[in-house]
Amino acid sequence: MATIPSSNSSSTTSTSGALSAMSTVTNPYYINPNESLVFPIKLTGTTNYNLWSIIVRVALKSKNKLGFINGSISAPNPSAEGYEVWEQSNTAVYFMILGPLDPSLVDSVSSRDNPRLLWEDLRQHFGQTDNV
């Protein structure tokens, strides 16, 4: 049986309880359907990358989704129960990163469908001393 991370990163919840866990805001797979993140700046290049990355990390942390870019939340086996829930959250995080990008940058990085790889690409292209 697959597992879904609970609010405590060192423990897990079985996927049989996934739907009830999804309604818990502390679960990293929780997505509030009425909520959108508003970012005060868009990434335009190296000049504002450090500030942009701090803002995005804080936003992801506030939604309990930082693990999708730092590797502490990894993909379950695609055939495992709970994979679709993980995939939905993973996609949401991907768009949380793409959203605050200047449109001129989106084409060069949007081929990545994994938020962790996207985050690393952006760090390598625009960052100087950033650590997740």
From TrEMBL:
<dbReference type="Pfam" id="PF14244">
    <property type="entry name" value="Retrotran_gag_3"/>
</dbReference>
<dbReference type="InterPro" id="IPR029472">
    <property type="entry name" value="Copia-like_N"/>
</dbReference>
<feature type="domain" description="Retrotransposon Copia-like N-terminal">
    <location>
        <begin position="38"/>
        <end position="77"/>
    </location>
</feature>
<protein>
    <recommendedName>
        <fullName>Retrotransposon Copia-like N-terminal domain-containing protein</fullName>
    </recommendedName>
</protein>
